[in-house]
Amino acid sequence: MKADLLRKKFLEFFAGKKHKIVVSDSLVPAGDPTVLFTSAGMNQFKKQFLGQITDFRRAASSQKCLRTDDLDKVGQTPFHHTFFEMLGNFSFGDYFKKEAIAWAWEFLTEWLKIPQDKLWVSVYKEDDEAYQIWLKDIKIGKDKIVKLGDKENFWPSEAKQKGPNGPCGPCSEIFYDYGKDIGCGKKDCDPACSCGRFAEIWNLVFTQFNRKEGGSLEPLPNRNIDTGMGLERLAAVMQGVKSNFETDLFEPIVKEIVKEAGRSPNLKIVYVVADHIRAMSFAILDGVLPSNDNRGYVVRKLIRRGVNNCRQIGIKKAFL
Ligand code: SER
Fold first, then answer.
1. How far is the CA of 272 from the centre of ligand 1 (A)?
2. What is the residue-wise DSSP string for 33-77?
3. Disulfide-capable partner of 153 in 148, 208, 251, 294 (CB 3.0 to 4.6 Å)?
4. Torsions phi, psi for 129 (to 5 deg)
5. 228 C-alpha to center of ligand 1: Å?
6. DSSP 77
7. Whose CA is nearest to atom 2 of ligand 1?
């Protein structure tokens, strides 16, 4: 299934669950000094999460995102990017864990028909409520639920300890199992392992706290839902390929780079170039020009890395 259709189906599914479909925000978040770039679907809804805007209580979007946290992993793994699209559904003091989990499962297994036995989940180690929903309502086997800690299953990651301030909470992630033949091959390999066998496709965040300066977690007036599913990862699963770079989202770009490079270039380098081309294009489209500071510096760095990687695969002319 093509990525365009996946995006459409996702929005249709949540429109059917009475969500307002909201267009992607700019990569440059308006009036939010806490982040350089829009890095998640929830960014544009912070006021709704804090109960400061109350005109709608359910929303869904496909948000363009830019993150530099994973810069070093780009091209080295099949799943990491600087620029990507995040499919998300959100509840602002409306539905909570039960519906968020049930609808994610319904979308993946009934609308997309992903076989149930290919899906595993993780929950925050102290979140027995989410654990019980997966076990009793969804009826996932105990052996397919893993309990993880503040780094993996709290969002933002380790927010309790390190911040940033703002809405946060425990989360539950859904993983696609590429099978025993991929990755480390260990018998006890599970989603906690980063060998590549398990691709995290959807993160369901149960946003119930506001982190304040100094690290205290205040319960929010309303309990919220913030989910994010990587369109590129979902496309890889649905197109039966093992790497996001082999999906229709990347394939035409990758093909052009390979054509220009000639003589079977190192694909890891090709993938870095493909990733950076998307990131710099969307950033420039949203008004960020290369410069020496802040956002502009990120774009400059992406261009520089893109050019250097092009040179490594023999592309010398102005290509990006
Ligand atoms: N905000 C969460 C994330 O970025 C879920 O969308 O993973």
1. 23
2. TT-SS--SGGGGGHHHHTTS--S-SEEEEEEEEE--TTGGGBTTB
3. 148
4. -60, -50
5. 5
6. B
7. 228
Locate the ligand 1 atom nearest the alpha carbon of residue 40 and give its number. Answer: 4
Per-residue pLDDT of the chain (320 residues; tens, 9 = 90+): 999 999 999 999 999 999 999 999 999 998 888 789 999 999 999 899 888 988 999 999 999 999 999 999 999 999 999 999 999 999 999 999 999 999 999 999 999 999 999 999 999 999 999 999 999 999 999 999 999 999 999 999 999 999 989 889 999 999 999 999 999 999 999 999 989 999 999 999 999 999 999 889 999 888 999 999 999 999 999 999 999 999 999 999 999 999 999 889 999 999 999 999 999 999 999 999 999 999 999 999 999 999 999 999 999 999 99
Q: How far is residue 172's CA from residue 147's CA, in Å, rounded to a whole number?
A: 9
Cα end-to-end span (Å), the chain: 29
Identify whether the C-beta of residue 152 lies closer than 8 Å to the C-beta of residue 190. Answer: no
Query: What ligand 1 atom has the least distance to the C-alpha of 88?
Result: 6
pTM exceeding 0.70 = yes
